[in-house]
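Here we describe the complex-level prediction in full. Unlike the single-chain runs in Section 2.1, the two entities below were treated as one system.
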Amino acid sequence: MTDTNTLNTAWMRAVQVRRRLPRPPVLVVICVAILVLIIGSAALAPFIAPYNPDAQNLGNANAAPSAANVLGTDSFGRDILSRLLFAGGTSLSAALLAVSIAAAIGVVSGLIAGYVGGVVDSLMSRWVDVMLSLPGLIFVFAVIGIIGPGLTGAMITFGVLMSPTFYRVVRSSAADFRNRTFVLAARSIGARQSRILRVHIFPNTLSPMIVQLTLGMGMAIGGEASLSFLGLGAQIPQSSWGSMVRQAFDAIYVNSWQLVPPATILILTILCLSIVGDAITDSFARKGGLRS
Amino acid sequence: MLKFVLRRLLISIPVLVIIVCATFVLNELSPGDAATALAGDEASPEALAALREQLGLDRPWYVRLGEYLAGVAMGDLGTSIYSSATVVQLIGTRLPVTLSLVLLVLALTVVIGVPLGIWTATTKHVWVDKVVTALAVITIAAPGFLVAIFLVTIFAIQLGWLPPSGYVDLTRDPGRWLWHITLPAIALAATPAAELARMTRASMVDVLGADYLRTARAKGLSSRAIYGKHAMKNAALPVVTILGLQATRVVGGAVILEQIFNLPGIGSATISAVLTRDAPVLFGVVIVVSVLTLLVNLITDISYGYFNPSLRAR
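The structure predicted for the assembly as a whole is:
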């Protein structure tokens, strides 16, 4: 009798715990798996790529997918799968660069604006409003016009232009936590401002930041692809997913198949990032930790 | 209402001044100036100095900034380094192409996005909602140029229904203009229309659950009055916000699409200016596009006033 009771309560508790922990939907799990696969294969490209990505074989140009070339070959007879794997490294690290810069600028300025408040806050926020209301791409062009085409410069500029979204997220949570009891307590025992920002406020801005990082990564991958497609990002011999799309587009009358692999992987990566980002937002919203 | 519009207009001016100053600073930072471009690589330092003096480039930066600002205010954006045309002339010939594309895209966005959003919000068939949502999510995730390439491959290259590139002026032959512009317009409208559909759906679902709508139904109003008057006008506000934000992104997207479809618009001028480092043209484009964007934002703000009268009073 007692046994069944303990069993019952244990069961009930397990059910409760499971209810409290939001079970990630199947779709999200699949997306995470795809992202891990894409990132992992890009990182391991030198080891797992079946061919040298730059090895030309004009006798075997524009080949359809086969056992030898799983995704076929491009106009120069290069193995598309190998190129895709290596280009992934370029695209993903370029996107990471842009997101890191956006996050660094956004976090520092957002923390200051949110914590200090007042005139500083309203001036910075007004500035961010202006930045967000302008078509960022045009400004990336303007900067590239000065520094010349190239992936690094393009992605740094892209990162700077993406920083306002991070600023907004960090600012709103910093402003939210500024007058919480634990911050006031830290202030009352004489903690330095920099310490309060670093130890007490910053960690609390992290959860909304994760969402922004995920979504920002998707934006940056799309941005890299657009710029490289236009010939302003990755320069030969460097190749990225965007420049692969470009090469495929230039050969579209000859071999439209070679467009499919880079386009699919681009859409898949961005799609998975946005689904995972949305899922994280949802789980925070359920916990009540995230205010929009 | 007039006061509201005027105030918004006045706020735009400092923003514009900041942008013009920013382009001036970027121009100062760029290696080489009009003198080095005109004199060529072989010019002696003396000849270069003489040319600088002749062009007034030897004067202090604040004098030139003042002159530049005054010039921009009067509609003078300088002269292209590589052709004798002024930047205003150059942009003037290309702006109509981009503008006609952008306007058509915005119209398409509303015509596709809003009904789709309302349909998915009010339909009893769950699968309609699911299919449209899934399509919208994929379209939003795909970078705009991929959507364009996809459409070109299918409708221009495989099926041959529409031309893959080229342009005919609207004033010369409206029919052929439409024939050429349809594919770029649909490609550019796909993403914003998908976003608008999702926004409209969310906004409609929100409003449809509101108490005043239940009251309207209880009063026995016709479904046309309920949806058309009570629901739509209140659901419109977030939709208008999204549309305003999208207008700026459509302009950015147009720059890329013009490359794919070979349209002689502002975008292809921008890219060639970037690649040849034609600074006056590039910064002229930045200023013109910024002005356009500010105008769009102004229109968005004014339409807020229409949809939400309480904003007008403030």
